[in-house]
Structures are given as C-alpha cells and as structure tokens.
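worker-03 picked up job from queue 'complexes'. Input manifest follows; two sequence lines, order preserved.
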Amino acid sequence: MAKKILRINMSTLKASYESMPEKWARWAGRGLTSAITCDEVDPLCHPLGPNNKLVIAPGWVTGTPAAPSSGRTSFGGKSPLTGGIKESNAGGLSGQMIAKLGLAAIIVEGTPAQGKWYTLVVSKDGVKFEDAVNLVGKGMYEVDEILWEKYPKTAVIGIGQAGEMKLSNAGISVNDPENKPGRYAGRGGMGAVMGARGVKAMVIVDAGGPGVGIENMDLFKQGRKKLTESIQEHGLTKKGGALNSFGTAVLVNILNEAGGLPTRNFSAGQFEGAIKISGEAIAEVCEKRGGEGTMGHGCHPGCIIKCSNIYPDAEGKALTSCIEYESTWSLGANCGIDNLEFVAQMNRACNDVGVDTIEAGNAIAVAMEGGLLPFGDAEGALKTFDEIRKGTPLGRILGQGVEATAKAFGVSRVPVVKHQSMPAYEPRAVKGIGVTYATTPMGADHTAGYTICPEILGVSGKVDPLSDEGKAEASLTFQAATAFIDSTGYCLFIAFPILDIAKGWEGMAESVAGVTGMNVTGADVVPLGKEILKMERLFNERAGFTAEDDRPPEFMLNEALPPHNVKWTITNSQLDSVFAWVHDGQPA
Amino acid sequence: MRVTVKLFATLVRFKDGTRVGKAFEIELPEGSNVRNLIDVLNIPMEEAHIVFINNIIEEIQSKLKDGDVVGMFPPVGGG
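worker-03 finished. Artifact:
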C-alpha cells in the first residue's frame, strides 16, 4: 500500500491525507523532513512565525517486522536555535506507530487562535483535535501519564513548559516503552516549533493501521539477517558488550583519558571527577540499588543493542531514563559537577521541563563562568531548572541556550557553531569532530558526522585525533553516511558494527532496497547522503549562511587546551573544502 | 621498570580487587612493549582494544618506559 502524507492545519483545525508526490517518493526520515522543509518552508521565515512547519517522518524500514534497532522518528523544520534547517531524531514509540498507520510523514502547519493548545490524536480514522487545557503548564512526566490513562499503549509526542514558552532550547519528547519521557528530539529547539503550532502533544494510535508494505520480502530478509548478525558479532554492540553493559556514558573515561572531555565550559580537556559520572558508575548504582534500575534497557520495541538505562533513586524506583554520555558530561564535567545523584536529577528535570540536555548543561556552564554560581555547585545547577519551569527571566535566558546566556552574563568563551552548542568532544583534542561541528548544516552536532569512530574508538580504523591530516575528507564521508542512516529509521549506533563488518553495511542497504523497491546498494549510501546534505546546505544558504558560519569559535584558536596544550589548527580553506562540491568548487 | 596501569569498563575483571580507572603498578622487564603488558595482565589481545600511554593512543608494539601511565579500554562507543 502506498504511503500517505498527513497534513494537519492548525489554523483551520482540519487534517487531510495526500498521496506521496513523486518529488519526495525516494525519501524517508531525515531525507524526507529535509526535502519537505526545503520545498515548503521559506528559509527566511521566522522559526516561530506562521510560515514555519513541523515535519515528522519515520525512516524507510521503521515499522517493518523485526528490522533491528529501527525505531527512529525524524523531526524537521527551521530551527529557532540555529536559524537554519534542522533534523533532530529520537527513539521511543512514535516512529513505528506512525509508520504502521501507513504514513510517510506528518506535516503540522498553521497557527490556532491565540492562547489555544491542542492534543492531536492521530489514528487510522484521522485526526482528533482535543483541547489540551488539561495539559498546559505541565511537565512531560505528567503529560505522558495523563494521556496513557485515556489512550494506553500509544506513542506520545509532547513538549514541556519550555516548548510552551517557545524557548530555543525546547525539545520534543517521545515516550519509551514504560511511558516515560526522555527520548528527545532535543537539539535545535524543535519543541518551540511544535509550541508555535499550538500543539502540546500528539497521541499516535496505530491499532488497525495498514502497516508498512515490503516490496521485496526476500531481499529485505537477507539484508535484515546480515545487519542483525553484524550487530550481534561486534564487540561494542553485542549482548554484554560495552554499550549494553555501561550505556553510552562508557565514553566518559576514554574521552577523559584522551584529554578530549570538555571540562568547566571548555577550559580543559580532563575532569578529575570523570570516573564518578561515567557509565561504569551508573551501572554500579543500578546493580547496588536494583529495583527498577537497570542497564541494557531498550528505548523502543525491537532494539537489540539496548544501550539505555533506567537510573534508580535510593529506594530503587525509576528516577530517570536515560542518562546518556552527552548528558552526564554536559550536566557533570562541563559544570565541574562530579555528583551522579545531582546529574540524574538534572537529567530528569531536562526530560520533564522539556529541554535538550546538551544545550542545558552548556548554558549552566557558561552562566557559571559568568558568575551566576560557582563551578561544581550541583544544588545551584539543579535549581536553575525550576527557573525554566516557572518561566522566570533567568529561566527564559538559560532556556534560550548558550549564546543568549553568554550575552546575558558577559562571557566570551562561547562553545557554539551556527548558534548551537558543542557536545562532549573537544575539537582541539579531537580535530575531525571539530570539522563536523563547523561544517554540518545542523550547527555543532556530534551525531552529524561521528569521526570519533576512527579518532578515539578504533572503529573503521585508527587515526591520530590530534592530527589535522585527512580530517576534512573523513568528516564529509561520515556526514554523508549519517544523512543516509538518519533516513533509514535505524539507530545511528548500527554504524559501529557496519563500519567494521562489510556484510552489515550491505545488509543495511539491502533491507532499505527490500522495503522500498528502490535499487539501493552499499555503494549508494554515501552518494544518497550527499544529496540530502546538498538540500540542507542550500536551504541554509538561502537562510543567509555563508562560509563564515562554518567556523569554530574564536577562543579555540587562541587558547591552548590542557593536557595536550593544543589549539584549533585546521585552516579555513580545509573547512571550506568539505562542502566545495555543492557548487562544483565555485564560491556559493 | 614500573608502569602505572588503569583498566576501564569490562577489563576491570582481569585484575582482582581493582576498580574502574584505579591506578596500580606493574613491574616489567626493560624494553617491554604494550603487547607484553597485556600478556602479563592475562587480557585477551582483542579485548585490549584501545591503549593509551600518557594520554596518547598507541599501538601494541609501542615501547614502554619507566613511569608511563597506561589506560586500557575494550571496544567502547556511544554518543
């Protein structure tokens, strides 16, 4: 059965189904959200104004039977944080349910009457526009609970108070199998875009949906088998491997050892308290307290990697899920905080009020540097989330993210590119990821081109993280492959095994070809990814971005980072070479 | 010569009584390399996936010297 586009107009409170137009038929996930954004959103529009849209799309294989670790949902539009195109994707329940309704994408557009908020209930019978007066002002824990009372076992997409206030660091939450918030399309303020449409929550009811059609079942099964085997064989993603045992925060110690763990607002590359906030420490707490606490938790049905965790409180009740590497770093090391209990509580606060943990921790760190509170003040840091929840002037400043906070507190060490703050890898100590931060159309984002694989992890070979050599080329290859994987619906973590095990790479492409009927092989992954990147770069150019926006922050050229005492040394012409092909080597 | 060793993640199980990242000392013959150290610790070669000497990633044939600090990791990842 051919997939449909569901268009929801919040001005008229009407929904309509459209056939998939030929121009978008090749795409899903990120490729589709970016194609629709490019075609339907004016790059010069105000991101919170009536002309922006929220585009939601599951990946190609999402919702198919037992495709491993394939529950991603892409959220796209123009970003209030960066002012450019944004695709932010999340796990949780929504992707598979949207796909099972036969939908390629949901486009939310228009603006309701002033002050009105809605819950959109999307099912096989269409869209119900329910008054969300019962949810307004509430955090996501309560929103998820209330909506499951009426619509149990559904996917809930929602925004916390930050999204209602249309703060630039507002994320979009997706519930997990335990109906807890925490699967966030966090980056770039897409929660504010949802808030600007007057949508507090969306409930996806997949019962009775047509399911996802598979064009070539034999090819799909062949690809699925190869991919599954590669995940199960690779040391990192297999059962009992590091991701399954310690979660993503297993990275804390290795980045610290490499001198690339940004500490106290990017002023050092090592944190003396790293071990206390690492994945190993999280696993120890889960083991000791037991109860609902666990490692090896899956964020969506069908995940075979299971890198998530449920962090328990002292009584063994679930406190927050999940403490990711980026979160324990941003709220921990980067704020000089080595108290895991406070990191866990701040993680919960982020998930409840609805902000991205990376930008939130960075904003607190910048405010610490500006004198709001001292580095290491865990209690003070936790209280800042009450300020956001209440919408105080301080909370609104912090909720705008790092750049606004830096201006408010007179700080010049501002770790951003394209107005979005950097994640947990220091570009001066790990040069390739700095190229990705600088050049990705998304603003500073590690997932956009994860050169950490060869630079630190010994995945897909080994290269010297401190060297400039070959980093521009490596970043482009990773960015292109990522744009493709972000379109499949597979979790990006399949990249670890398939970069090392050739049959996994082939299997990924074959499973996509099997579902869609398109002639896609492993050799097409990078070229198709480049097509997506080109769309996104051209949108950003029309939004006013130039080569000067593809630069790391000034302080990284001036300040040497301990312990290696290194500065940013990759030249601007090397950075400009990454996307020179978009205009055949000519200036934009 | 003596080197200081720190084990992380699943490698902790190869040293009785140690904890994640807790430094301990090992006596090695002069001229030993990383491979010799991994053998002394009875860690399977494929599990000692990333080895740092003084915060720099090194190869298994890299020579050790007195006073080096070695950090060892199994395959890890995330993000």
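worker-03 released lock.
Chain B touches chain A at residues 6, 8-10, 12, 20-21, 46-47, 49-50, 52, 55-57, 71, 73-79 (CB under 8 Å).
Residues 2-73 of chain B form a domain with the Ubiquitin-like (UB roll) fold (CATH 3.10.20.30).
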